[in-house]
Amino acid sequence: MRSCVIALAVCLLTSARAQTQWAKYDSNPVFVKWGLMEAYAIGQPTNLYENDTFKMWYAACAFDHRGRMYLASSLDGIHWTRANLGLPVLDIGLPGSWDQKWLDTPEVLHDHTGYRMFYFGDTTDQPPPIGGLSSALGLATSVNGRAWSKDSANPVFRKDTTLPWQSLWVESPAVLFVHDTLRMWYSAVSYEAGDLLALLELQLQIEQVDLAHAANVAAEQVRHFNKVLAEQLRELEAEIDDRQLAFCASYGMLAERRLDPAQLGLVLKDEVRDLAAAQAQLQRDRRLFKGDAAQVKRLLKQWRAMQRAADLDDLPF
User: Fold this and answer.
1) Average of per-residue pLDDT values in the chain
2) Is the model's pTM score more than 0.70?
3) Is 269 found in the same domain as 181?
4) Domain boundary among 137, 163, 193
5) What is the pLDDT of residues 288-310, one digit of tens each?
6) Domain boundary residue, one of 176, 193, 210
7) Residues 80 and 162 in one domain
8) Preceding omega of 45 cis (within 30 degrees of 0)
9) 260 pLDDT higher than 60
């Protein structure tokens, strides 16, 4: 959830380019976070227009850093009223459940059976790449759009960790009825190059696949995983070399080979000794400045004279 406010964009319709040119509303934002239940952020709105009223379901991050679902309504899309006294209309799951800490990216449909909400859920409240690793999509139903019941079969859609392009998380469902069939478009994210936490999670997921599932993994997918992990290994080694080079340069050390703990211990001892000497000098200076004022003035004059002499030495003639 990256948004802290919800704005309005008005579509400029033309016969040649319908819904391709948009103008932001001059008085944006039209909806801002409010109260403890929206203390950190609001975003991911989804809207329906029913009975001359805009209904907006949105996600908000509360004071406890948990994502929940809320509802607001408006007659003009500009002035909004929060439903349910500003309290969530769909809350996080119980401890241990798949959506115990975070709900996000709602998508709401309404037909003759009632309202359906497809949503993102996760067991962690951390942002990606840490968050999202155990994500899935759930379903909730409602008669009035306010009181929701989660489906007993949740989550109804999980990421497929054997597909590299959705190895991190899935989110943001967009659902439509097409010839009496629900079709869902969704976002899926793979780990990025250099993302060490995501790489670790991917490795763990591969190791935790049971033998029955592993037997069905195509050889081409296995080769792809091996290639990706080999590339990540090379990137890790290059990153270690870069960090070692910077460290050695900071302490005047040669970086001809990998550092070992014994070398680092000697470096730290030297650093501690230098800091102790500097601290002792500062304590002596402090005692001096507490002494005779005339002596302090003489020392300052001497220091200025030495500075001027040093400046003259730096001249190119």
Assistant:
1) 77
2) no
3) no
4) 193
5) 666 666 776 777 777 777 767 65
6) 193
7) yes
8) no
9) yes
